[in-house]
UniProtKB/TrEMBL annotation:
Belongs to the ABC transporter superfamily. Gene3D superfamilies: ABC transporter type 1, transmembrane domain, P-loop containing nucleotide triphosphate hydrolases. GO terms for cellular component: plasma membrane. It is a multi-pass membrane protein. It comes from Phyllobacterium sophorae. This is ABC transporter ATP-binding protein.
Amino acid sequence: MNGVPRKKKIDTTEARRVIGRVMGENLREYRSSYAIALAAMLAVACTTAFVAYIFKDVINKIYYQRREDLIVPISLGILAAFVIRGVATYVQSVMMAKIGNNIVARYQHRIFDHLMKLGLDFYTDTRSAQLAARINQNVAGVRELMDITITTIGKDIPTLVALIVTMVLLDPILSLFALLIGPPVILTVRYLARRLRSIHRESVTLNSHLLGAMQEATQGIAIVKAFTMEDQLRAKISALIHRAEERANKIARVSERTTPITELIAGVAIASMIIYTGYRAVYNVEPPGAMFGFMTAVLLAYDPVRRLARVQVGLERSLVNARMFFEILDVEPRQADSIGSVPITVPTGEVEFDKVRFSYGNGVPVLHGISFVAKAGKTTAIVGASGAGKSTLIGLVQRFYDIDAGRILIDGQDIAYVSKRSLRQSIAYVSQQPYLFEGTIADNIRYGRPDATDEEVIEAAKLANADEFIRQQPQSYGTEVGENGVTLSGGQRQRLSIARAIVRNAAILLLDEATSALDNESEKRVQQALERVMQGRTTIVIAHRLSTIVNAEHIVVMEAGRVVEEGVHDTLLARPNGVYARFYQLQGREESPIIDDTELQSTAVTGPAV
Ligand code: ADP
């Protein structure tokens, strides 16, 4: 199945695998940039160590031996070291940011392409959809993982090594003392990191619950308000927020615990060093330069040590994100085109279902051997109660899913063996809920056929009865719609989606008739637009309006995944005790057996359509 596995513990091997994969996918790509960044980091490490080392000469040669000739050279040396350090830090930061931004951009491209390839089954899994919604956060995880690893390896470890070398050069015995404090620091930090890891995992899970719950609540806001669920939801979300806050505080407490511990250890170390070197200076009359250089090295080492101590914490968080990201990227798109599939040619657009059996992933049969022919250029109306399998049928013509048995033929070609792209290009689909995308009105119509000329777009809009209202918009065809654009009425949106289908100029039209009620005037315009787009095309329509059904050249009556009757209105009506005849007699009455419940609402508002 395409489901994404639940969050599970990240063990060390898996962590290593994820890091390995991130490195493998990116190191080579950014070879030269990383080389520059690493060189800059090494320069930072060396100059840091140099500053510590030169302190010995500052104290001994300038203050102790009073060598006037060295004042200027040593000062200039220190100035140069700081300038190099500044430039190198700048180069390194800019380089890492550039690489990081590019990693994010590249993965965003990749994940979007991937999301477009995934079948509809992926999107019906809400958990996957939620994961997809948080892609940006997850991509950031991949970037962070690279940043942390490279900075650790390139900067902090070399800086620390250079400083330790400096310490040894300055005072080997004292270095031994200083290194003795290493193990206890490492041990405490490791203990805390382990504790943090489990708290952090809880926090990530909690936060995704929280985000998911908020997303659901806002997406279903109409239902929330209709059922006055606000208080219940508020209580539920409050509890989650409270727990997330507690976790975040706990993380802060535990991770900050490293600070007092390391401060204490550092204080003890420096105090003992002063005691040792102090007595040595007092009794041996030894110049204190080496000691000052040494202390400087210890103080400078503090920063990289602290960062290294936190590496595990940052790594843990970005690992969780990177792993979620790869989980989506690793979902195999199912039912790719079979090898040797050819483009379909659709001269007339006759659609034939031949003993089609189908079940969704869960194995429950939905269609039990459907056979019927939708004649070329004619309208075939599919009627049946909700859940009969009408939408499934429409989806199968577009090969959103592969069928279990039987064949679907278009002009005699089995669609299982043609390329999906060519198949879908010969079909226009008007969904029940018209969907507009970010962009202008013209863009939205042109999604039907990207190479349509402006004239064709306008012509389609005219046929769809949309031209008039489009011209009344602030920027006419250039008006922005979608998320950030103007709000159009339901009827206007429907007419735009019809214009999109007209401009596509495909031989086959799949139509899921809208059930939502429009006002009479709007309804008439939409109806007229639909009649025009159906003209001369093979139309398969999930019919909700009696007028559509009565006027159809062929009616297919479905019940629970089977075709129970088919024919034209008059013959079906003449059948004694026929399903259709019963339905027709009951039309307008509430217990209509073969028509969607939704229809009842729309007829109730708009009045009977015939
Ligand atoms: P209709 O369009 O006639 O209302 P559908 O084709 O939507 O019927 O549904 C037919 C049957 O298939 C129903 O029992 C429904 O529960 C099931 N079904 C629809 N979509 C899915 C899906 N994505 N996964 C599993 N079952 C589904």
